[in-house]
């Protein structure tokens, strides 16, 4: 009898009813790979969209899930028994992902888990933190950069925390009162967003000359961000309205020498993501980044219910525990 494992798997897309709890052969690592026993796996909105068929390159049948934390059971000697975490574009899309008891991936695709993070905490951070890190890197956020982060979700919170470590000046902005209060409670000066046409005036009250970088995590504030931007400023975006289109005030953008930076976490494989996790993971152990709170841990076997809840807009971060 070959060893088996429990996993979530879908063989068709378009409906969450295609997702099932199944028994699969435990994967066997090849040369240069590791077998990781999953201790915790994050559930991201992109995992739900994957089952719903939003990613044309997903191959079937497939075990979904990008983010994980666990222990290396097979692979190179120096990694055996190590507590690791990881994420990346292959997992759940064209290689089996983390919503299972085990995952196989490149030995260079795992990073050592920060000691100060539990497995569940580490599993909650992969996609939001690598997305935020990439946005800050590619839009040039450094010491004293005047940064505005729009939105109240996980990526926005990660960007604010990472920017603070870099020594940037940070300003948050959110639409809902409870988001504003939550961001202020985390210690960030926060704008309460009103009408798009008033954003520039709101930003100018805090940053004379405008924001050098605006990271819009919502997809709705790109046109309004242009007047709020400093000369040679950058606007980073990770989302768009449902039809994918937005009216961009191009004249105002190029007169300012401004640029728009598209941020897509699915451009990075597990090895590139592991390199990012290594870079900022140490900040958790150094006490420079906040430890995740309010996670909802759920048995993997109840994953179908959890997927449905995320699809219906449940806000808390769900962690699947095999």
From TrEMBL:
Record SMART domains: PKS_ER
Tell me the ranges covered by the Enoyl reductase (ER) domain, including all copies.
Answer: 14-320
What are the protein's GO molecular function terms? oxidoreductase activity
Q: Which InterPro entries match?
A: ADH-like_C, ADH-like_N, ER, GroES-like_sf, Lipid_raft_assoc_Zn_ADH, NAD(P)-bd_dom_sf
Q: What is this protein called?
A: Oxidoreductase, zinc-binding protein
């Amino acid at each position: 009898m070959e060893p088996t494992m429990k996993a979530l798997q879908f063989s068709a897309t378009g409906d969450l009813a295609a997702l099932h709890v199944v028994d699969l052969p435990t994967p066997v690592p090849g040369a240069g790979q590791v077998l990781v026993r999953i201790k915790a796996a994050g559930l991201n909105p992109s995992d739900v969209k994957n089952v719903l068929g939003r990613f044309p390159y997903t191959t079937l049948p497939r075990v979904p899930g990008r983010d994980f934390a666990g222990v290396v059971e097979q692979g190179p000697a120096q990694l055996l028994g190590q507590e690791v975490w990881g994420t990346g574009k292959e997992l759940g899309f064209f290689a089996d992902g983390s919503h299972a008891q085990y995952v196989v991936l490149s030995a260079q695709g795992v990073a050592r888990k920060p000691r100060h993070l539990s497995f569940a905490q580490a599993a909650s951070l992969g996609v939001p933190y690598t997305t935020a890190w990439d946005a800050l890197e590619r839009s040039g956020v450094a010491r004293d950069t005047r940064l505005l982060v729009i939105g109240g979700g996980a990526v926005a919170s990660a960007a604010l925390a990472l920017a603070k470590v870099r020594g940037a000046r940070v300003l948050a902005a959110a639409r809902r009162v409870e988001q504003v209060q939550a961001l202020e409670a985390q210690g960030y000066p926060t704008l309460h967003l009103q009408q798009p046409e008033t954003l520039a005036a709101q930003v100018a009250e805090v940053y004379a000359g405008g924001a050098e970088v605006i990271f819009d995590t919502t997809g709705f504030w790109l046109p309004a961000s242009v007047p709020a931007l400093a000369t040679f400023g950058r606007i980073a975006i990770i989302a768009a309205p449902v039809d994918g289109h937005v009216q961009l005030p191009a004249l105002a953008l190029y007169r300012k020498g401004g640029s728009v930076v598209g941020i897509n976490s699915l451009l990075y494989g597990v090895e590139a993501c592991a390199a990012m996790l290594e870079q900022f993971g140490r900040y958790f152990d150094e006490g420079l980044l906040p430890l995740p709170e309010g996670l909802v841990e759920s048995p993997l076997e109840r994953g179908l219910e959890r997927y449905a809840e995320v699809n219906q807009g449940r806000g808390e971060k769900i962690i699947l525990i095999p």
